[in-house]
Amino acid sequence: MKKISQISYLAFLILLAFNFSSCKKEKGFSKGNLTFSVDTVLFDTVFTTLGSTTEQFKIYNNEKKIVNIEEVELMGGVNSPFRINIDGISAYLHKNIEMPAKDSLFAFVEVTLDVNGQTLPMIIEDSVRFRTNGKDQYVKLAVWGQDAYFHNLDFNEGIWPNDKPHVIYNRAYVDSAKTLIIQPNTKIHLHKNSMLFVYKGTLKVEGTKENEVIFQGDRLEAFYKNVAGQYYGIYFQESEPSTIDYAIIKNGTAGVHATGKNTSNSTNVTITNTQILNHASYGIFLFDRSKVKVENSIIAKSGAHGIFVLQGGTYDINHCHLVGYGKDNQSAVIGIKNYYNGFASGVNGNITNSVIYGTQRSEIAFDTVNPNNDPTFLNIAFKRCLIKLEEPSTNSMYQDGIIWNENPLFTNISEGKYKPLSSSPLNNAASGAYFLPLDIEGNPRDMSTPDIGAYEF
User: Fold this and answer.
1) CA neighbours closer than 13 Å in the CB half-sphere of residue 175
2) Given this model, what pLDDT does residue 27 score?
3) Are residues 205 and 190 in the same domain?
4) In this structure, is residue 226 part of a structural domain?
5) Do 111 and 168 fall into the same domain?
6) Taking 70 as the threshold, does the pLDDT of residue 211 lie above it?
7) Do residue 289 and residue 391 come from a single domain?
8) If we measure between CA atoms, which residue out of 215, 280, 284, 269 comes closest to residue 247?
9) What is the distance between the alpha carbons of residues 31 and 223, in angstroms, rounded to a whole number?
10) Which of 347, 339, 251, 341 is nearest to 292 (CA)?
11) What's the domain range around 390?
């Protein structure tokens, strides 16, 4: 009996092994291959030493059985500037990844480039090899790399070269009694929270009509094209007379911040023929008795105020577009508050031949005090302007032919085109007494009947 039982038990084990083998064979791996959402992962231009955003692609198993991915290899290996993450694991080589039938995986790719010393952009390529069932398939990786001049808490003077972009981390300083000149066609990219900081020094931005100086964030991917708040801005503290001509300053927190008066009590910064666009808070922020002059310029799409005066200051604005339309705009284009932390200062301000318009009911907001009832403490005037104000005012600060609440009829607000149409009320409505000979595009103005704003139609 014992011998028969042993034979029966042995037969049972053989049968069990056979059934297990048959079951395993039925669930065996597919002999098919993979498909991918793209054949090339292409990055936008990336600065050397500055990592990219993360790109992704999908890997598909369209078979009815499990696919065993024998290897996933970044062909450049440890020397590749690219990094790949699959199923939450970052490595240059992955092995034996099982993908269930009709399933997919995400692959994430990043890149960081080394400094190369070249002035022109270069293309860097690599590929990812997928081996399944002895067959190799590839997804290509490509990035445009751009070398740059990098600034990180450094002190600057003289002339910045314009053969490569400049990238600012933290702060780039122009110190006391020093002068920095920025040439036409210079591209300046600022990292998150960074700024160009002018402390008791002088900045000269010398763009031209065809070769503006551009200030923007250091993320060049298409997603960031119109994202505000990517960096702080240009900061003038008690600066000596500085100039910004033909610049485009976009996508920061505060485009230009001027604080404190200088040794000669003269204008801190003069801004001409410049566009200050899409800032998270302010286009121009004047604080603590600073002085700013702005001509032939466009300040648009600020999250808070286009012009904000806090604790007093002096401004002279002529032939400008001061317009709202910011995505998150909840405030008037112009905000004036002459006190802060219990201290109040006077405000001296002229806005002439300019359009002040946007999506708010009123595009001018005041919060002012005059502790000693000094008639000269608040010296504010608007002359020959088109102004949006919920209730047209008879206050004496509004002088010389104000146009109230008429649509300026810009060409295309959604595309940021603020040139007036032929039927615009801005046309021929400015005063020749305050006119500037040329508009922002270099076109001559009609001396007797110029147009309100930065453009001469």
Assistant:
1) 4
2) 52
3) yes
4) yes
5) no
6) yes
7) yes
8) 215
9) 40
10) 347
11) 149-420
Which residues are CB-contacts of 15 (< 8 A; sequence separation ≥ 6)?
A: none
Together in a domain, 288 and 358: yes
CB 178 within 8 A of CB 216: no
Whether residues 153 and 288 share a domain: the answer is yes
Q: Tokens in use for 132?
A: 């399944």
pLDDT digit string, tens, across residues 356-408:
999 999 999 999 999 888 988 999 999 999 999 999 999 999 988 899 999 99
Residues 289 and 270 in one domain: yes
pLDDT attached to residue 62? 94
Distance CA 335, CA 342 (A): 18
On whether residue 7 sits in a domain, the answer given is no
Q: β-strand 339-340 against 343-344: which pairing, if any?
A: antiparallel
Q: Is the pLDDT of residue 20 over 50?
A: no
Ranges 71-80, 215-224, 343-352: which has the least confidence: 215-224
**Of 181, 145, 134, the residue nearest 162 (C-alpha):** 181
The reported pTM is 0.81
Per-residue pLDDT of 301-336, as tens digits, reads: 999 999 999 999 999 999 999 999 877 767 999 999
Report how far residue 359's alpha carbon sits from residue 5's, in angstroms, rounded to the nearest whole number.
Answer: 93
Domain count of the fold of the chain: 2
Q: What is the 3-state secondary structure (H, E, C) of the chain?
A: CHHHHHHHHHHHHHHHHHHHHHHHHHCCCCCCCCEECCCEEEEEEEECCCCCCCEEEEEEECCCCCEEEEEEEECCHHHCCEEEEECCEECCEEEEEEECCCEEEEEEEEECCCCCCCCCCEEEEEEEEEEECCEEEEEEEEEEEECCEEEEEEECCEEECCCCCEEEEEEEEECCCCEEEECCCCEEEECCCCEEEEECCEEEEECCCCCCEEEEECCCCHHHCCCCCCCCEEEEECCCCEEEECEEEECCCEEEEEECCCCCCCCCEEEECCEEECCCCEEEEEECCEEEEEECCEEECCCCCCEEEECCEEEEEECCEEECCCCCCCCCCEEEECEECCEECCEEEEEECCEEECCCCCCEEEECCCCCCCCCCEEEEEECCEECCCCCCCCCCEECCCEECCCCCEEECCCCEEEECCCCCCCCCCCCCCCCCECCCCCECCCCCCCCCCCCC
Let me know whether 139 and 170 are in one domain: no
Q: List the structure tokens of 146.
A: 């751009």
Confidence check: pLDDT of 17 > 70: no
Taking only the tens place, the pLDDT of each residue in 99-131 is 999 999 999 999 998 877 777 677 889 999 999
